[in-house]
């Protein structure tokens, strides 16, 4: 695969066919956000983007060191994580 610099834009693009990609990404599971307050972040994503809460992990179900919320909207999935150190 050759990498070619586009004139005047400073960006890179692949000159080869998609089958030549040494690291083909066909999809993804979730975007993970490391936040200070996972509950507040989940509320924001739900309110601002209309996402639906589909999963929770935290102290109430045996995970004392962190809390995580998973929200979905169509094919997009966000996970907000906070770590409690102490």
From TrEMBL:
Q: List the residue ranges of the region (Disordered).
A: 1-21
List the InterPro entries hit by this protein, alphabetically. Glyas_Bleomycin-R_OHBP_Dase, VOC_core
Residues of the VOC domain: 27-86
UniProt-recorded name of the protein = VOC domain-containing protein
